[in-house]
## 1
Amino acid sequence: MTPDPVSPSCWKAVQDHYREAGQLDMRELFHNDPNRFSRFSLEAAGIFLDFSKNRINEDTFRVLVEAARQQDLAGWVDRMFRGEKINLTENRRVLHTALRNQHGPPLIVDGKDILPAVRSKLENIGRFVEAVHGGDWRGCTGKRVKDIVNIGIGGSDLGPRMVVDALHGYAVSSIKSHFVANVDGTDLSRVLSQLDPQTSLFVIASKTFQTPETMINARSARQWFLDRAGPGANVARHFVAVSADSAEVQAFGIDLANLFETWDWVGGRYSLWSANGLSIALSIGMAGFEDLLKGARGMDEHFRTTPFEKNMPVILALVGIWNRNFLGAQTLATLPYDHRLQLFPAYLQQLDMESNGKTIDRHGRNTSMQTAPIVWGGVGTNGQHAFYQLIHQGSDPVPVDFIVALQGDSGLEMHHRVLVANCFAQAEALMRGKTTDEALVELTASAEDGESMQDLARHKTFAGNRPSNTIVIDRLTSKSLGALIALYEHKVFVQGVMWGINSFDQWGVELGKKLVTGLLEEIEGESFPNRHDSSTNGLLARFKDRNGMR
Ligand code: F6P
């Protein structure tokens, strides 16, 4: 079952340990150690992590931590926070942590402290948000803004969309937020159909301002606005941009006074803390946005300063590596028991899979280990009635991250107790499983006859020993959400370091982007050169035929 992941010497001790301890049984571990929960849990930045339901013991933990030392994890953490150009293939710094540390000691980049500029950009956002909320910023016919539409994709969509959805309960009541990402016109038209152009504000979010989906949606939205806003239609009152490229923004026709600049040293999937958080601030207000930054900052400080043995992102990353590289797990399920976090798995997919879904290491060699797992998930309890069957009895191990808030905010307290009970029950069931003997005892009680009882008992047996983490927050607030997001950002970074890859580029998305340009020309053009494989040619021909295009 287990791949042989090891070649760098730092992994040798982990592999030796795996040979001895790979078959650890959690039931036994819990039985033998009443302190297992306190031994394998910790609290940081308002987040509690229980990682005791993993197939690890003290030695597992020790060898993994030692591997982290040998991979110079401390050096990489330091280089990231100091702003070295650790994104080697793009020759960029990685400084999203600076965005939540505006009041920290000077951070010198190219001979200049960047924090005053970080603060001033945040103040710009604050002024704009205040103007919109206070009614000083009005549409071209003098009406107040009621609807905000964020048009962006990938990192310019998933993070802000997830946060706005999660913190919906804290949203300013006069503003409704919408997100459009897909180039599929149904995404945009569904949103536009709900809007009044005179009271709508479009935030065009794109670091490059060249991403085709975003630019196509932005142009269609602008046209929709111009067609409907009336004689005084003024794009400048209804379109603002979030981007690192002012020339492209200007070329699109957005007034540079309405540009909120992002940074070259912040990648898309790490950008919700930058001006890309404008839609968040417009939804929950500036104080809420600043609390989000504060929460993340708390996790940053913990990550930067805490020994690995007590360091939550490091632990989450190392346990993930144990599951992925030594226990052979190909996927990771994120299961929030909080409906407000329903978009968290989708957000995490980009963060983890775009960062660490790579097979070439920092030195241009093939990686010696399997890298990012396939990240997926969905909210509990819904998933229990859909895909949990596979998690409990499927042929592949699926490690799980449960996420739950101890206090609910729905006002329906009984619901919350049931929700939490379900979360804890699932984690316990995955760990304990059910032996055939236990199943038989149950069946005897239900008076099944002998033969069918044996048969049924096999179906009702759960192997158990399936790993999970339970991540617990007291309440879902801007601050705790900020800390939760930063926890995963750093976990992903640590895993990248351990696998020896650059987590901050994404060359793998380029090929498809290139091919689409040629295909579109063929779809729209007269000629049909038949220059692809027979499948692609056949599909193209079918499309053109059905649409009377040839
Ligand atoms: O294509 C992938 C990607 O580059 C992501 O990394 C990024 O978050 C997304 O596209 C959007 O990019 P932009 O903000 O430049 O439109």
Note: The CA atoms of residues 178 and 191 lie 7 Å apart.
## 2
Amino acid sequence: MKKVVITGGAGFIGSHLLRRMVNRYPDVTFVNLDKLTYAGNLENLLDIEHKPNYRFIKGDIVDGDFLTALFDAEQFDTVIHLAAESHVDRSIANPIEFVMTNVVGTVNLLNAARHCWNGNWEGKMFYHVSTDEVYGSLGEEGFFEESTPYDPHSPYSASKASSDHFVRAYHDTYGMPVLLSNCSNNYGPYQFPEKLIPLAIHNIKNSKPIPVYGKGENVRDWLWVEDHAAAIDLILQEGTTGETYNIGGFNEWKNIDLIKLLCTIMDKKLGRPEGTSAGLITFVRDRAGHDLRYAIDASHLNTSLGWKPSLQFEEGLEKTVDWYLANEEWLDHVTSGTYKQYYQQQYADR
Ligand code: NAD
Ligand code: DAU
């Protein structure tokens, strides 16, 4: 029976990926390895936590000895690596944590897998989940392709770029079977409300200012999170070992236009007069080194494996708003830190 370890499974994307994989592949065991940082919340997984093919292990990928012992004991044959510090603003405030988890943690995982697999690569795979931010910033024109040279600007993207290079180095040097994907901005349920969309939903609901950095002219390419999970699943099943796949939504939005659309949806959903939410838009100091535009060319994934996004953005955004409004308890727990106290107590001795 196959055994897959998914790191960072208690986070935003990891929890969607686990839900998909645990339900789709009942004969495969999935182990969720997560440190439960502020961003890791097992409430994201309540609907699958009792499934027989799912297990949670609390652990820190920065601890190399722990990982080696874990791999020896569990004999995973597949690693899907999502655990990371993921928020750009936090990386500007505290870069070293990003170096530790994103770079050292990734190399520790590669080492643990290499030690455990011991040159027997048959049936093994190390899948590394990365970001389009490694490619840097675009002007008005052009797209990031898989061959675009790396040019990271934030401590977050520099740490992810470094981790990507290490994964490729383990493939080229030791022959480890690897896959990589670089994805654009995800949105949807269970995203921590420090990221633009859930932060804005939360603030609008509470009639608080919506902080828009600079003039709101920066452009991001948004993808429904379940489409990212579907792409990872497809690449894992059918991707060519050693290759990189760009994943994106073909869906570029200026931040200010996105926020205005969100305001319109929120006014409707909350039964407030049109224009109420837009009145909360507040332009604030720009993010340091703020990348102007990201745009992914996902045609390699589309033509080679047939993947394409399933949802139109307007529909996905409305679904996202509906989810946050229907899951006030989740949002309250996250914003108050209640979830953290609960799970930290429950796993205190691990
Ligand atoms: P997230 O911040 O929501 O979740 C990260 C998870 O990793 C959390 O559960 C956290 O507890 C865990 N973690 C952090 N440090 C750890 C450590 N030292 N040991 C073990 N677990 C640890 O992140 P996300 O938005 O779900 O992103 C997941 C991955 O996808 C990241 O690698 C990120 O770089 C990448 N990515 C994210 C996006 C996006 O839009 N969110 C887009 C492209 C790629
Ligand atoms: O592109 C993929 C990346 O997308 C992922 O690798 C990262 O993990 C993920 O956090 C995300 O990075 P961004 O920096 O693009 O996401 P964020 O939600 O922080 O910001 C989106 C845009 O909105 C960005 O241009 C900054 C702006 N912004 C953000 C916040 C939090 C604001 O204007 N105001 C805000 O309060």
Note: The mean pLDDT is 96.
## 3
Amino acid sequence: MDKLKVVGPLNLKGSVTISKAKNAYLPLLAATILSDEKIVFGEVPKLRDIGTMNKLLEHLGCKVNPEGSGFSYQLSELATDEAPYELVKTMRASICVLGPMLGRFKKAKVSLPGGCAIGTRPIDLHLKNLEKMGATIVIEGGYVHASTDGLKGAHLVLDFPSVGATENLMMAASLAEGETIIDNAALEPEITDLGNFLISMGAEISGLDSKTIKVKGVKKLSGSHYTAIGDRIEAATYIIGALMTKSPLSIMGFDPGHLDSVLEKLVSMGANIERLENGVRVGVGELKAVDIETAPYPGFPTDVQAQMIALCTQAEGTSIITEQIFENRFMHVPELQRLGADITIKGNSAVVKGLAPLKGAPVMCTDLRASAALVLAAFCSEGETLIQRIYHLERGYEKIEEKFKNLGARIERVAE
Ligand code: UD1
């Protein structure tokens, strides 16, 4: 297994282009199930999670072919209605195929995603609301067995604005009979991107960017050409990297409006960030501590929490970072402590005392965003940091070493 070797401390310089969003593309790929016509996506990032979703779609009978900067998809005939454990266990977002399978083929057998490193992550909201739309759901042998005579529009109220549940229900509703109202829908930009894509296929959707999304079912959805939004989480990671290393960087290829809560917090710490039309320019400066609580969009994203803790190790004063979305999302903390960070966990908060000197050490990736936090902390650590289990990083950061190397980082992949 490869490792990443980083030699710090270091500075970065230049401009980086952010890839299209993994978390937008995963539901978009699942949505290709809804049509028998060809769908083409551009600028699909080369990531392990995208590869897993492609494999799952191929398993279901979809023809997946490279085309231009992305892939084409066409599911004319279903090969099987089963999303098997081997594929679903490696990526929870596989549950996204449930809604479109039920919508178009009226049946699906999807492995339960099970627990994952950052918490139990149930799918009760997906299942309960699909039942309200007329699905019969039985859980047996570790699988969700779902079937329907035909989904019907319903008034759904989510107990929590779950991103995945909102996406699954929007996709299911787009081929259901009648109108579905999803109240307390998630507001994440990836939801709007999925809505816009479904509309490009002929779906009738209103209320995007609001807590009430309305979907009028149609009989058939057509093919489409589409490119997803830029990856706001990848962008936030590079912005934080610039601030941690006190480096002037331009980070391009995303909508800074999608990062309002993050940028506001960073500016309150003293960061010098200029918003551009399609990115930001980060200036050099000293940072002060900050308090943060993660929350559903437009709140501070849980997917930037780990990187933020890494940043707070470089800010003057004591920061308190509270995780409100997932119950076990501090696995990066013991690894950051190995580098010398002064962090104490109190319940679901991390108390970070800034400016403790960091020193290179062997560390281990535990999940995707935790891994990013380790790379950033390694940039500020004296000497060599060897980062293990980087397959977590490959799930969600396209060409991370190449991109950081182009910015001047001393980072390289080493074989075991
Ligand atoms: C998506 C993102 C993930 C991000 C998360 C929160 C993708 C592929 N993944 O994950 O990167 O961290 O949003 O912004 O887009 N919950 C339930 N029951 C359910 C569904 C969710 O209790 O049926 C809970 C979860 O356990 C969690 C919270 O709701 O505590 C948020 O989960 P959700 O918004 O569904 O996240 P995902 O869609 O899994």
Note: The pocket of uridine-diphosphate-N-acetylglucosamine is lined by residues 23, 26, 92-93, 119, 121-126, 160, 162-165, 190, 302-303, 325-326 (CB under 6 Å).
## 4
Amino acid sequence: MSSPMEAIKSEKRQLLINHVTEKMTSNQTLFKENEDAIVIFDLEGHIVQVNPAFEKLLLYTFAESIELKLQKLFPIESLDMVFHYFHKASFGQVQNFDCVMITKQEKLIDLNITNIPISADDKVVGVCASLKDITQVKKKKSEVRRIEEFHRVLTEHVLDIILTTNIMGKIHYVSPSCEKILGYEADEIIGQHFSLLLHPEDKEKAFKEREKVLTLLEDSRDSYRYVKKDGSFVWIESICNPIVDHDTKNIIEIVSVIRDITERKQAEEELWSRKRAFRDLVEHSPDAVIIAKNEKILFINETGIDLLGPERMENFISRSILDFIHPEDHQEAKKRIKSIMDGNRTEFKPYQIIRFDGSTFDGEVKGIPTFFQKQSAQHIIIRDVTEKKKTQELLRNSEKLTIAGQLAAGIAHEVRNPLTAIKGFLQLMEAQVKNKTYFEIIQSEMERIELILSELLVLAKPQDLKFEIENIQSLINDVKTLIDTHAIMNNILIKIVNECKDLTINCDKNQLKQVFINFLKNAIEAMPDGGSITIEIKQYSEEKVKIFFKDTGRGIPHHILKRIGEPFFTTKENGTGLGIMISKQIIENHNGSVHIWSDNKGTIIEVIIPVNNGLTI
Ligand code: ADP
Ligand code: MG
């Protein structure tokens, strides 16, 4: 027997079932075909109806379902909430909430539940719960959260700056590393135009690059300068990526990853300037520098081109280095090249070097292993030692000359003493002899010997500079005396034309004599078949006098003229090539100057020198 209470309950349940069945038949599809699971509870929480989606979701058959009560479907910890909403629905309110349910296989599934009260005859008779499976949505949400978190960690801890801008160029987001690199906090630049960060000189380039990204929708990578908050700048490399909306194909924003490359730039610059310095060093080296690989020339500097050529650079490239070395030295040179290739450096060694035109010169060659265009190669230095050899030769000669000079001085002394004695005795003899004609001749010849000896002495001993007032005419006469015999022997006549008598100059007479002797000797040497030398003295101005040495010799060819006066430049077999240089030097020390004119009829040397008018020096 059922109690009256139970009778009421079962009556309500029957009412509900009738109501539901009636509604269901009227709206079959909505119920049966619904994607969402639908379950209908009576007010006691007993299931009275479920749709196929429910059976599928919770894995209970219809028959099993109607045996179930609400609490069987939820975990204990959710029951309070579930009852709360169920209760509210039984009072006519539609409720929606997220909750976990338990399937027949005791699997938990995430659902979004909507409770809708079911009324019949204005009375709530049951609750219809529509269950939406939100497992996937939840999964997606948590995945989105995970990705967001991942991006947050990434952007906040990455050392590069991550910056996003809208298509107008306004900054949307900037990662915290911005403060470290540029000194700006995110708040200070968000909302500003990105050009705020650009170095004025790089703005155009950056705008162009951005334009490319916007129009071609492609990534771009470039480096320029960014201005820091303190006004200084840093070199950055920026990679810009447009973020495009899949559906509309519009750009949503541009993401830039910005890296501080100042240090790299500095290192690059340093490397570059070192390379340039090295290149300058090689290019302007006074020695010929060749870079070769397996004897073949890869590079030659300007000095090398001049020394071995002159020829065009291309004509050197790929030629064998041995082409420029005398065949006698080839075996030795090959051995040395091999040694350099093995990583050894070789010291300077003398070689006969052959130029492009086949002429040769004395050289010294050294080799060092090196790298050229990332390959191992040989760095070869060639030095022209012709001048060095000449200097050494001259040094040896001048050593000899000094000794000869000293000897000359000694001899002059030695000769002078007996000469004085001879002179004395000659005077004695003169007193006893009647015919004195010969004696006068002997006397004058003796005086001449004395004069030459004293000049020899002066020239032999280099002395300190001694400026004194000297009569120019007598200075020239002295020199003429000294050189006359030599001139006459060569069939040369020396004439003096003086337009200004008694002119004096302030000078070191020994040095000036040396100068004049040099000029006269050169003139004599230029006239092997004889001729004449005219020494002209002319007042040039109030302060200056001109002295010309004019010869009738063979002259100096035009192309040689410009080299006259270079140390050691000589056209003579036994010449020193020092005479003109030293003479010029001496005249310049006297505040004067020397000029040379020459043609095939002879040479004119002009010396301009200040006169002593009581004012100068
Ligand atoms: P060196 O006499 O030892 O050769 P110099 O310096 O005195 O050295 O002269 C250099 C060169 O100048 C000579 O070798 C010669 O060719 C040329 N030279 C000098 N003076 C004359 C001259 N009067 N006539 C022709 N050539 C001259
Ligand atoms: Mg000379």
Note: The chain has 19 helices and 22 strands.
